[in-house]
UniProtKB/TrEMBL annotation:
K(+) binds at residues 115-116, 224-225, 321-322. The keyword Transport applies. Low-affinity potassium transport system. Interacts with Trk system potassium uptake protein TrkA. It comes from Diaphorobacter aerolatus. This is Trk system potassium uptake protein. Belongs to the TrkH potassium transport family.
């Protein structure tokens, strides 16, 4: 039990930060004069109260954060924070006479914070501005990672910050140290994130969006979350220029933000353009977009230019785990939606705001497979696995293999759980992939024109678990369930 006190002590600081984040929808409520400010004030006060209770209970415990504490805190944050994020959703839903159940509110909060973009809400255009701001702002918070923000701004986390950073970082980049101090690294990454956000919002505004729409879609674009305040998603605007801006920022956000940080810090973009993972990600997105565009043209679905527009936008949107749509792509030749959803597992970089397996892992797997095939022909050959000029050590290779094993097992188990509820196989399997990839885009009964409201509470909890496992990258959460983790 004493092992939990350092974690709970840090949790109180994170809850205080989260209460500050709730000021954003509160300001939006005053701006829109929707009369819902009391819901957000109540949410802030309750969150601060719980934070104060935790601080008072653990104020005498000060210990260096160990790796186990980092894993415990990250897991706790992604399970507990959605509880507090769901409070304004619940209060506002009752205030506007569209009451949500706890299951629906928690699902919506997890979907937002993990940048999945699945939703149980409908009639989005009629929802209060402040509620839509909160839905999209949650994605922006979760995009770069709440704990990385905490490392950047809370002196309390200065001790042991490296353990938190490693536990929170996504993909095989956990040991990357961009500056001597992890606090400075976190500040740098969030600085780049904020800069991207500013340019994205200005771009949307310049292209014709209202300031409110520009800000909310910026939240969803740079985080690769994809929630929109409109039922029609990006089709609401009917603007090729806005779609082009969205494509640019979705592709940019799918790259490792550490590359931008290094390039801006050194004033040299040479390393950025030579990065193997970035080039593979861009090639996958552009190549995939052109392939789908060619298919749509060849099958006479669209004229050539319209096929290029539709193919590029939807491949980039789905593959980067964003999920914006301008049409129901389930009406396309079946290869297209299946291909796009498969890409959503790999077409984002480690250290990006996207979900999925990450391109770096796929590159390591491919290179390891090539090495094993070479060993069949030349058993004594020494052939290191490389990413660019960097040699990948065996520990990293085994970590990737373990991740892929647990990833496959997770998808199978969760899919079987949904099939037990008599959900059709296409909907069940694609819903699990959408959840574990934190992508939101699914097929069957959960296509672009559908809402997750059609699922039962049990089915929603299965998808919620998938989103949490995907955001925690599976191994961290599974480690908590092993007896070895809890032994001193």
């Amino acid at each position: 039990m004493s092992d939990l006190f350092p974690v709970l002590r840090l949790m109180c600081a994170l809850l205080a930060m989260f209460a500050g984040a709730l000021l954003v929808p509160l300001i939006a409520s005053f701006y829109a004069d929707d009369g819902l400010w009391k819901c957000y004030v109540a949410s802030i006060l309750f969150t601060l109260l719980v934070s104060a209770i935790l601080w008072f209970s653990t104020r005498r415990f000060q210990r260096e954060l160990l790796p186990r504490h980092g894993v415990m805190l990250v897991s706790m944050v992604w399970v507990v924070l959605p509880l507090f994020a769901a409070i304004p959703l619940l209060l506002v839903s009752y205030e506007i006479n569209q009451p949500m159940s706890f299951t629906h509110a928690y699902f919506e909060a997890v979907s937002g914070l993990t940048t999945t973009g699945s939703s149980v809400l409908s009639n989005l255009d009629q929802l209060p501005l402040s509620l839509n701001v909160w839905r999209t702002f949650m994605q922006w918070l979760g995009g770069m990672g709440i704990l990385i923000l905490a490392v950047a701004v809370l002196p309390l986390l200065g001790v042991g910050a490296s353990q938190l950073f490693k536990a929170e970082a996504a993909g095989p980049v956990k040991d990357t140290k961009l500056t001597p101090r992890m606090t400075e690294t976190a500040k740098g990454l969030w600085g780049v994130y904020v800069l991207f956000s500013l340019f994205c919002a200005l771009g949307y505004w310049w292209a014709g969006m209202t300031p409110e729409d520009a800000i909310m879609h910026m939240f969803s674009t740079v985080s690769l979350g994809g929630l929109s305040p409109h039922d029609a998603s990006f089709a609401y605007f009917k603007s090729p220029l806005m779609e082009l801006i969205a494509i640019f920022f979705m592709m940019a956000a799918s790259c490792n933000f550490a590359l931008y940080f290094i390039a801006l810090r050194k004033g040299n973009w040479h390393g950025f353009w030579r990065d193997v993972e970035m080039r593979a990600t861009m090639a996958t997105l552009v190549g995939g977009g052109l392939l789908v565009a060619l298919l749509l043209w060849a099958k006479d679905v669209y004229a050539p230019l319209e096929a290029l527009r539709m193919g590029m936008f939807h491949v980039v949107s789905v593959a980067t785990t964003t999920g914006y749509t301008t049409t129901d792509y389930l009406g396309w030749p079946v290869f297209a939606p299946v291909f796009m959803i498969m890409l959503s597992g790999v077409a984002t970089g480690a250290g990006s705001t996207g979900g999925g397996i990450k391109m770096a892992r796929m590159l390591i797997l491919v290179k390891q497979a090539k090495r094993e095939m070479a060993r069949i022909i030349h058993p004594s050959a020494v052939q290191p696995v490389k990413l660019g000029n960097a040699v990948v050590d065996n520990r990293m290779i085994f970590s990737v293999l373990a991740f892929m094993l647990m990833y496959g097992a997770t998808v199978i188990v969760l899919s079987m759980a949904l099939l037990l509820t008599d959900l059709d196989p296409v909907t069940a399997f694609s819903a699990v992939l959408a959840s574990v990839h934190c992508a939101g885009s699914a097929m069957g009964r959960l296509g672009p024109s559908s809402s997750y409201i059609i699922l039962t509470d049990f089915q929603l909890w299965v998808c919620t678990l998938g989103m949490l496992l995907g955001r925690l990258e599976i191994l961290s959460f599974i480690a908590l369930l092993t007896p070895t983790f809890w032994r001193r």
